[in-house]
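User: Could you go from structure to sequence for me? I need the amino acid at each position, not a summary. Structure tokens:
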């Protein structure tokens, strides 16, 4: 094992050479200890439902699990109960509090963050019990979608044509999060929050998450679900390649004058920006405007009425006038690729494993795909009792390589193609859209890839 972190897993064996079970602290400048994990206070760190086991190593006690997950975002929260169903004891930590907010949220307010959840992700959430309980009046179905190029080319999709109930489901972050927290707690996942991950150490047989307050969780598999700036990834020595798009996604939600009839819109703009409207329940739409950074700063500084007027006009008043119902928020956009999703006793899922442009609304869907694949591999582990066995991690990485690469390639190509200002490229991309629209089988193929 190098000082920079454990090596990427290979099938030759799980043991880093020459370490003989001694523990090393890796990353964030901590000292190496051969004496085992330091003393931890396990109060408040007890596994719920008898999931983990306490042990003593030369005095101090540590809580053991089969799997410890860093990061209770939507992806970490979904993989945890899926792994309990695979017969594993699971702990989950997050630096932020993990609570169930009111569900359905009290009052009339709407969350600024909305997600387009693909039918494939909805089926996965259903399989872990986190879909059916979502309040129907906080979800909208995308039944049709209209995509416009910057010189008027058109591309359209319809759920009916594809034999689907919806192209996607639009769900509030807080509503989905509340349901996932409920499911994780009911499954017996040991949730330790708010605990900020401070360091990771490995022995040949386990990894240990050390939290800033001294809590330590040891597990045979550590899952990094801790987002784009993953500390687990860094400690595992996996260096991402990151490229900024020079764009910031501005999100906000609006009441609209005319009904949207379950339609989503996307406009590729001539400055390389992408404006998307997604239907919300009632006469409301959710906006994601991926705008060049400078324009995004202007949009974020606008008073709500001016922002609503600008968004309505940029979307050609497709649903009439707009009225802001949430504050706006901005997210800088970048492509992030990692050379591997696995390392010694480590698997990465969600944004820790891949960052994509939101123009296809697929980031969290990719993450749910990771969660589903990892749970399926660990459920089918057969005689292997060790969830961190290299063979299993390799199997997970192989399953995810193609879908992740495909989504990164499609979103990145579209973002670059529509970011180019050359008149030839403009003409070609709009021509391409028109041709695609006239080829139903090609359109269906494209749409089916996004439904998974
Ligand atoms: C504007 C915008 C719109 C989008 N729309 C869509 C969409 O419609 N559909 C879609 O599929 N995707 C969409 N995405 C992508 C989606 O937001 C992400 O892919 C998704 O949120 C990633 O979830 P995650 O759980 O992997 O990571 P995160 O949501 O980043 O969660 C990481 C968690 O780890 C915790 N954490 C981090 N560091 C530490 C630490 N050191 N110690 C302890 N805890 C830690 C954090 O507190 C957090 O809870 C969109 C993205 C943007 C920017």
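Assistant: Here is the amino acid at each position, in order:
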């Amino acid at each position: 094992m190098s000082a920079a972190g454990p090596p990427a897993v290979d099938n030759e064996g799980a043991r880093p050479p020459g370490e003989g079970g001694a523990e090393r602290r890796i990353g964030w400048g901590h000292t190496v200890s051969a004496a085992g994990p330091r003393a931890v206070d396990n109060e408040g760190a007890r596994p719920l439902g008898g999931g983990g086991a306490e042990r003593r190593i030369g005095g101090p006690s540590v809580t053991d699990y089969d799997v410890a997950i860093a990061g209770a975002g939507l992806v970490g929260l979904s993989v945890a109960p899926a792994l309990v169903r695979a017969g594993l004891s699971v702990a989950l930590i997050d630096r932020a509090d993990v609570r169930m907010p009111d569900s359905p949220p009290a009052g009339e307010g709407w969350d600024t963050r909305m997600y387009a959840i693909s039918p494939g992700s909805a089926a996965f959430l259903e399989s872990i019990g986190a879909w059916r309980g979502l309040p129907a009046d906080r979800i909208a179905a995308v039944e049709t979608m209209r995509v416009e190029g910057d010189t008027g080319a058109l591309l359209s999709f319809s759920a009916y044509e594809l034999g689907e109930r919806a192209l996607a489901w639009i769900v509030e972050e807080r509503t989905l999060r509340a349901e996932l927290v409920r499911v994780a707690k009911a499954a017996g996942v040991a949730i330790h929050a708010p605990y900020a991950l401070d360091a990771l150490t490995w022995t040949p047989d386990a990894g240990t998450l050390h939290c800033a307050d001294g809590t330590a969780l040891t597990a045979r598999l550590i899952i990094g679900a801790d987002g784009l700036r993953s500390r687990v990834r860094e400690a595992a020595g996996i260096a991402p390649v990151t490229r900024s798009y020079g764009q910031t996604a501005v999100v906000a939600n609006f009441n609209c004058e005319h009904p949207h009839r379950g339609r989503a819109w996307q406009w590729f703009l001539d400055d390389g920006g992408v404006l998307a409207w997604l239907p919300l329940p009632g006469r409301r739409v959710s906006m994601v405007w991926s705008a060049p950074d400078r324009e995004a700063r202007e949009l974020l500084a606008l008073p709500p009425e001016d922002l609503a007027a600008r968004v309505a006009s940029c979307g050609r008043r497709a649903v009439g006038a707009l009225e802001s119902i949430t504050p706006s928020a901005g997210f800088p956009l970048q492509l992030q690729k990692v050379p591997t999703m696995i390392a010694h006793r480590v698997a990465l899922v969600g944004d820790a494993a891949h960052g994509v442009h939101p123009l296809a609304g697929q980031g969290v869907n990719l993450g749910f795909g990771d969660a589903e694949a990892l749970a399926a591999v660990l459920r089918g582990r057969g005689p292997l009792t060790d969830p961190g066995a290299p063979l299993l991690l390799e199997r997970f990485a192989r399953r995810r390589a193609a879908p992740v690469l495909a989504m990164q390639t499609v979103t990145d190509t579209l973002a670059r193609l529509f970011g180019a200002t050359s008149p030839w490229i403009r003409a070609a991309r709009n021509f391409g859209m028109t041709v695609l629209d006239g080829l139903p089988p090609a359109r269906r193929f494209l749409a089916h890839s996004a439904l998974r």
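One structural detail worth keeping in mind: The first helix runs from residue 74 to 85.
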